[in-house]
Amino acid sequence: MLSQDLSRYVELQRTVGFKFRVQHTLLRSFVTFAERHGDRHIEVTRVLEWATLAPSPQQRRNRLVTVRRFALVLAAEDLRHQIPSAEALGRNLLKRRIPHIYTRNEITALLQAAAQLKPSATIRPLMYETLFGLLAATGMRISEALALRFEDVTADGLVIRQTKFQKSRLLPLHDTTRDALDKYLLARRRLGTLNSMLFVSATGAPPAYSTVIAVFLRLARSLGVRGEPGQTGPPHSRSAAHIRRALPRAMPARSPCRRPPYRRPQHLPRPCPRH
Questions:
Q1: How far apart are CA 240 and CA 89, in angstroms?
Q2: 169-201, pLDDT tens digit by residue?
Q3: Which of 94, 138, 158, 163 has the least CB density, counted as fewest CB within 10 Å?
């Protein structure tokens, strides 16, 4: 019964636009655990028993909160499902990481280091230099960049497909960013592959998300720009305001799409002056 409830719940979440991959994995683990004990409904004791199997306090709380949301939906249909308290394992005391704002010199050094990656005779160094530069200049997500294909590069910019809530958007590029991307495209088109992915490594396949993070961290630490643990995020964790200061040639000082000044339509009456 819980398995059927889970299938309906996952379908509902994905219908409204959530990918729901991690949550599905956790809930499937819980349902398997509960059904192994003969449970047909969610029980608080079983939720806590399963949640405490996780190795860290944050993972245990994440398990608890994930099942709690599931229980809230099921309890609306059947009151036999029990809803665990969100603080059954203690309050959430996790401190958010402090984002590191990279300076212009740090970004330049990172791109130069990426261009020196091995093997030098492959597309790998240019790929990482272009990828990190594109992330810095546009603020796009790493997963969005890795999902780009040849057909997504248009005269008007990059087409970012199937982002949050299954929507797509057009990402305009500055001329200098376009020039750097065109340089990479020349090398990419000379590389014969069986796929149309834009960013590929020396093997001809797109790099994994975890691989990109690992390469970025290795370069940052080798240059001494990686902060203390907990102070630096992934390569796209930079503010747009800082990127404008750090990359003045990649972004115009003023956006060309400024809103025109408001003008009162002629058919509207003017307000009466105060006496």
A1: 38
A2: 999 999 999 999 999 999 999 987 788 999 999
A3: 94
Rounded Cα–Cα distance for residues 136 and 248 (Å): 12
Place of tokens 């102070």: 231
Tokens standing for residue 155: 């005269």
Q: In whole angstroms, what is the distance from residue 40 CA to residue 80 CA?
A: 9
Helix, coil or strand: residue 169: strand
165 DSSP 8-state letter: G
In angstroms, the CA 29 to CA 20 distance is 14
197: helix, strand or coil? strand
Say if CB 104 and CB 242 are below 8 A apart. no
Question: Two tokens at 117?
Answer: 């990656």
Q: What is the residue whose two structure tokens read 């010199």? A: 105
pLDDT digits (tens, 9 = 90+) for 235-260: 655 444 444 444 434 434 344 444 44
β-sheet with 169-171: strand ranges across: 153-154, 157-160, 169-171
User: Shortest CA distance to 194 belongs to which of 203, 207, 185?
Assistant: 203
Question: Rounded distance, CA 57 to CA 68, Å?
Answer: 16
